[in-house]
Structures are given as C-alpha cells and as structure tokens.
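Hi support team,

I've been running sequence recovery on a batch of backbones for a student project. Most finish fine, but this one hangs at about 90% for roughly twenty minutes before it completes. I'm not sure whether the input is malformed or the queue is just slow. I've pasted the structure tokens below so you can try to reproduce it. Let me know if you need the job ID as well.

Thanks,
M.K.
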C-alpha cells in the first residue's frame, strides 16, 4: 500500500474495493475538509494512518488508496463550523461512521466522550474537544463477491402472499434443532431446521424486524437493557453484526446473503422492516456518530426558527430530511443495494409518512414517491407502509399511492372490537373482511393494498391479547407508563395465566378464531411470528427492550401449543388452496360462476340475506359471508382452471351458541365443514361433516366456521 492518496472518483459513495485498492467517497455540503482515518484490523483501536481526501466534486469528497484490501477498518473526521444555532455541528474530534459503510465493526462505548458538545457545561453549544475514537465503531471495507448460484427471487404475487413477521435473534435462539453457535443469527434463520418449520407452516415471506446496524441507547444500557427490536438505526447499508455468527469484519454481509439464498431456495421471500425516518443520534443532546458530524443541516429536519432544535415527527428525537436530494439519494441507494446486492424482496417502511413530508406536510406528490415509482428496480419489489407517524396529519391510512400496500390499523381494531362483542361492528367488519374497499378502491388500488393484521411486534401477542386485560411493562424500567394504554377486556373474570380448564378452552378458541378471521379475509395476511404457537410476553405490550425469554420463542411446545400450530397450518393450507379467499379485485356483488350467483352475499343467522337495517343493529353479533367461486375465472400459470370452490364463512361473536341456517336460495347444493375454530380437535365427526341447504349449523360462542359448497349429501 502506498502512503500517497490519489484523487479517486466521486461515485460510488462509500468505500469501494476494485482489486487494486479502495476508493473512498463521502458527501458533505458544508464541511471544509475531510480526513480519512485507517485502523489496524488486528488492533482496531490503533490508528495507522490519516489522509485528507484530496478532491471534491459536486460536494462529494473523494480519494483512492492503492493496495488497500478488504478487511481494512476506517473512519472519518470532518472539519467545518460548530455552530448549532445555525444548524452546524462539525467536530473533528469525533470519529464518524460512513453513511455508505457496507459493514461495521464494534459497538458504541458510552464511557467514551461520543457526544459532540460539552455535557459538563451550562452552554450545551460548546464543542467537546476530547477524542471519541476509542468509543465509536469502525467501518469495514468489504469484498462484495458472492456466489449466488441459481438464486432467483420467488416473486410471489401479493394475493398469494402470507407474511410472517419475526425477529432474527428471537426466532432461533432457543431452538435446539439449530446448532448452538448459529442460534439467534442470520445463519440460524437460514438453517434447515428453521426453514423446514416455516415451510411446514406455509407462509410465503418473512418480514424481519430491523437488521440494519443499530445502537443500544445509553438510557437502556444504563438499565442493563438492549434495544431488542432495533428501531434505532445507525447505518442503512450494513447488516447488524449482532445477528451474525461470523463476526463483524464483513462476515455479516456474507452470512446475510447465505440466509437469503437458503430462504429463496425454499420459496420464501425476505422483506425488511426499514427505518429511514430517523437515526440513533436522537435529539440535539444525543451522540455524534455519523450524520450529525458529517452534515447536520443536510441530514436532519431542523426547526427553521431555531436550527439548534430538531423537528421530531418520529418520537425519537430527530427526523431524517428526506426532502433533500442527497438524503433522498442515500435512501434510494440503500434500497437498491439491498435489492441488487443482498437479493431482498421487499420493504416495510417504519413511520412511512415522514419520508413523504415536504414543507412538513405529507404529500402524494413528494419526491420520495415519484422516484420510487419510476425506479425500475425499487418499484418492482413489495413496498409496505406503516401509514402513520407522530406529526400533525400523520395518520395516512389509505392515502399511499399505487404499488404500495399498507399496514391496515383499521382492520386490526375492527376485528378486535367485533370479537370482543362491541356493538354495531358488522358494517365496519364487512369492509375489513373484503379487502377494505372504502380505503383503497377509489384510488384504483386492490385488496392487496391492505396488509391485514390482528397483532404485530408492537403490542400484545395473540396469546396475551386473550389473556391480559392490562399491560405489564414493568421490566422496561418506565414504571409501566410505556406502551399502549388500550384495555382489551374479555370479561373472562380471570387476569393473566391460569389453570382453569374452562378459561383455557375459551382463550384457545379465541386465538383460533382470530387466526381464522385473519386468513379468511381478502387482502394480505400478516401473522406475528410465534402467535401460531401461543408465544407470550407475559403481558408486556412494548417488549422493545426485552432481549430475553420475554421476547424469545420457546420451542418446547405444550399439547395446547402443538394443537394451535396444527390448526394454523390447516388455516394457511386452506387459504392457499382456495382462490376465492384471495381475489385480486374487490367484491362488488356481480354474478359469477355457472350458478350466476353474486360474488359476495351477506347472511343473517336465519339464512336470509342481510338488509340495510341489519348493518346498524346493535345486537347483531352473528353473520355469514358466502363467496361464490368461479373455476373458469381463475387459472394457474399453465392455463389450467383452478379449484375455485364456493365458500361460506360463519362468524359468531356472541358468547352464546347460535344455530345458523344454511342458505336456501340455491337448490340442489350441500355444504361441508372445512374447519371450525370452536371444535378443532373433533376429527372426522366434524371435519368433512355435510349438510343440506336449509340445515342448521351449530356455532359455539366466539367461533368461526368455514364451509365448502358441494353436491348435496345423500
């Protein structure tokens, strides 16, 4: 390696090894000079060289070092004004993480002065002159080469998708079928035992909680906790080394790719939960680790009346300035990197409205949407929005553009209210079960715009939803004040875990009924990982800091948990088998099939069609939905007609049993029970049980039944 730095190139940004050396390029609009610091790979705290980047092109500082190899550790120091009232916080005493680093080694050491200002001074705007290098992670130059073999993106249509939200570490950490050294890692998720489980379950995609390099907040570290969920991003390109069995010197990149390749071979897509709305540097009194020291006024939204203050639409202290062209390029470059280099299949955008705020207001005309829509790479993967943030006008459910799907919070809330027995929920439920046309149809979108969920990482698990009436978040160290205060009382008379067989049976039935509702609804179902095996967080509805048994999956399943798993597998198999449960277009009452029956018919318990007055009845807690199949309307990829049966969904949210009369309006038909959430273990005497039109079906309280239309039984 030579000590002389050559001019190099301004693109690509980051550290790029070309076989002859490494090109370094970093953007800063307001810096006056940039220093590159090199560190000994065998002794990361020892600085071996320092170079001033010799060239600046279009506000990109760059240089090339011949002879440098992958594995080299480096960091940056940027010179410029330290003037918080003007929005600038340059401090060359603070070593900085490259925004385009592909791998990061080490963690933040909070005992080192990683804050850019003097914390012991009354005036927080005084710069801290102490060096932070010993407490800041190093960037790693990587070798990007990888043999993908015959890897192909599964490209599963949204209407065929069943998403499984899970955590890389929590999923496999306690799985005895995974080798101990691989548990809780990318390799653990990509292990054959994990993949066999997911394949047998029947899901089509894993949606991974954040895997970008992240930070454990100082506040949590002082309490002995960790930011387990990972919504505290430090870098948008590097896979978090905490999830890598292969270490933090670039092995995390290869291990992530190996995981994706293994999942793809099993036909499972990988969707990343990405946090581009804020960073781990938090508010103006947070650490200086990367963006703040590189160009604070560019990367963050600052209060125009007081640029020392950060606008906070995220609840975390800062907000990324996605309206700035360079910041927008950073986000797009990151998305393309994860698609093209890491082969991921889609993204769920945390607090997505933040990224489309221009002049501080959400806008469908935002550059963020425009660039994604025209990008030939990003526009072709799955794009899922969390359609709300904490700013004014931040609730934007139903307002995202074409090609976007959204976490449907109205679906979650309506389904919960209906099964709780709340009054006057039938009309709202009808919209949610049929794809939420009230939210998406007028914009030319489809039922697949709705990502249906009953539970997610943020809130109670399904087990806890039917077990606890109040949250129990004391372990988070915030006096149980964090997390949602929404009480979801089931009036079961028992709070928390119990051995009462009647209460246990009722809870298990409610779990099954929730799962059935989710998987029989039009749209895209998202299952919270572990709900299928009764995973509990012991009443904690905000387990973001619980990197322990509260959050990890317990794979030692009881008989009840095994039964729930088998029931979920059957539900998923039924959904995948019946096209009528996953239509691409909205149900509109038009006739389909040989019988010329309406595609959707809503029924009262007496078997007659619901009328306008029925939709506003306070006491109607039982209803049916007939979905007319059309074998000629659905064909597989080879043109063969699919088995598109007519189905009948019966829902009873009453605590009492109800006799539901099967519809009479089609002569000569019969019905066969496919699955019953109230009687899942009855075997042949229930599964395959057949009825004539006009017969009564017994619905247990809080149960859901799916029937298939057949030739009349003899």
């Amino acid at each position: 390696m030579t000590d002389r730095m050559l001019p190099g190139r301004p693109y690509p940004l980051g550290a790029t090894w070309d076989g002859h050396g490494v090109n370094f390029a970093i953007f800063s609009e307001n810096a006056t000079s940039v220093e590159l610091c090199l560190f000994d790979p065998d002794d990361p705290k020892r600085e071996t060289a320092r170079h001033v980047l010799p060239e600046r092109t279009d506000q990109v500082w760059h240089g090339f070092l011949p002879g440098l190899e992958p594995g080299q550790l480096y960091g940056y120091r940027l010179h410029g004004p330290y003037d918080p009232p003007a929005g600038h916080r340059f401090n060359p005493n603070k070593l900085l993480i490259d925004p385009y680093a592909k791998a990061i080694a080490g963690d933040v050491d909070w005992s080192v002065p990683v804050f850019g200002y003097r914390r012991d001074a009354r005036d927080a705007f005084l710069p801290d002159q102490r060096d932070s290098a010993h407490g800041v992670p190093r960037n790693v130059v990587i070798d990007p080469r990888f043999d993908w073999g015959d890897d192909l993106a599964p490209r599963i249509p949204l209407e065929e998708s069943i998403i499984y939200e899970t955590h890389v570490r929590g999923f496999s950490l306690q799985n005895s079928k995974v080798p101990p050294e691989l548990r809780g890692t990318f390799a653990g998720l990509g292990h054959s035992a994990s993949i066999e489980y997911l394949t047998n379950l029947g899901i089509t995609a894993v949606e991974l909680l954040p895997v970008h390099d992240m930070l454990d907040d100082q506040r949590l570290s002082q309490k002995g906790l960790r930011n387990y969920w990972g919504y505290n991003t430090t870098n948008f390109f590097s896979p978090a080394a905490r999830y890598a069995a292969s270490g933090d010197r670039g092995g995390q990149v290869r291990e992530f790719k190996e995981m994706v390749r293994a999942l793809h071979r099993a036909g499972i897509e990988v969707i990343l939960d990405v946090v581009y709305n804020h960073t781990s540097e938090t508010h103006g009194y947070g650490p200086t680790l990367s963006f703040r020291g590189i160009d604070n006024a560019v990367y963050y939204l600052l209060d125009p009346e007081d640029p020392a203050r950060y606008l906070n639409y995220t609840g975390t202290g800062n907000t990324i300035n996605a309206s700035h062209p360079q910041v927008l390029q950073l986000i797009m470059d990151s998305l393309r990197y994860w698609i093209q280099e890491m082969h991921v299949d889609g993204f769920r955008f945390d607090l997505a409205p933040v990224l489309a705020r221009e002049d501080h207001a959400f806008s469908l005309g935002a550059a963020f949407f425009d660039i994604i829509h025209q990008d030939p790479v990003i526009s072709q993967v799955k794009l899922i929005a969390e359609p709300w943030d904490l700013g004014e006008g931040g609730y934007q459910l139903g307002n995202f553009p074409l090609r976007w799907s959204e976490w449907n919070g109205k679906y979650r809330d309506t389904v919960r209210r209906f099964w709780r027995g709340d009054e006057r929920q039938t009309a709202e439920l009808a919209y949610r079960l049929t794809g939420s046309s009230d939210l998406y149809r007028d914009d030319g979108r489809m039922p697949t715009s709705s990502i249906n969920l009953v539970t997610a990482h943020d809130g109670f698990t399904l087990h806890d939803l039917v077990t606890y009436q109040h949250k129990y978040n004391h372990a988070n160290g915030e006096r149980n004040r964090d997390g949602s205060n929404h009480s979801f009382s089931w009036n079961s008379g028992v709070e928390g875990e119990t051995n009462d067989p009647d209460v246990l049976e009722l809870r298990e039935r409610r779990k099954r009924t929730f799962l059935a509702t989710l998987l029989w609804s039009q749209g895209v179902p998202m299952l919270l990982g572990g709900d299928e095996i009764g995973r509990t967080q012991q009443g904690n509805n905000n387990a973001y800091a619980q990197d322990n048994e509260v959050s990890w999956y317990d794979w030692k399943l009881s008989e009840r948990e095994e039964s729930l798993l088998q029931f979920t597998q059957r539900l998923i198999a039924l959904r995948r088998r019946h096209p009528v449960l996953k239509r691409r277009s909205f149900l509109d009452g038009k006739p389909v099939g040989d019988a010329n029956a309406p595609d959707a018919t809503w029924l009262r318990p007496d078997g007659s069609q619901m009328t306008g007055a029925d939709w506003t009845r306070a006491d109607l807690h039982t209803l049916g939905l007939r979905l007319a199949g059309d074998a000629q309307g659905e064909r597989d990829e080879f043109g063969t007609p699919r088995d598109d049966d007519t189905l009948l969904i019966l829902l009873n949210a009453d605590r009492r049993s109800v006799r539901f009369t099967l519809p009479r309006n089609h002569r000569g038909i019969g019905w066969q029970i496919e699955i019953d959430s109230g009687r899942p273990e009855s075997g042949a005497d229930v599964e395959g049980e057949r009825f004539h039109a006009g017969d009564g079906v017994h619905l247990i309280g809080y149960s859901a039944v799916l029937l298939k239309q057949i030739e009349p039984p003899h």
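--
Follow-up from support: It reproduced on our side and the slowdown came from queue contention, not your input. Residues 501-520 form the longest helix (20 residues). No action needed from you.
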